[in-house]
Design a protein that fits this description.
Bound molecules: zinc ion
Shape: elongated
Strand content: under 5%
Radius of gyration: 19 Å
Number of helices: 3
Structural class: mainly alpha
Distance between the termini: 32 Å
Helix content: 55-70%
Length: 70
């Protein structure tokens, strides 16, 4: 089994996201979705990093379990 290393883009996205959360934590305006200039900038930065990521579509539908031939 191999661990999948996060790409630089993924790491950047995570960083942008934690910056965003850290700001929301201490910003009353952003907490009620009345985004202040800083919050807006962080949100945009976070969105930009997400666009840089390859589309990570969650796999939908479960693979049918293998059946034993009877
Ligand atoms: Zn804010």
């Amino acid at each position: 089994m191999t661990l999948v290393e996060p790409t630089a883009e993924e790491r950047q996205a995570q960083e942008a996201y934690s910056l965003l959360l850290a700001h929301f934590d201490g910003c009353e305006s952003c907490q009620i979705e009345n985004y202040c200039p800083v919050g807006k900038r962080l949100r945009r930065a976070h969105r930009a990093t997400r666009f840089a990521l390859p589309a990570s579509v969650p796999t939908t539908g479960t693979a049918s379990p293998p059946r034993e031939g009877s």
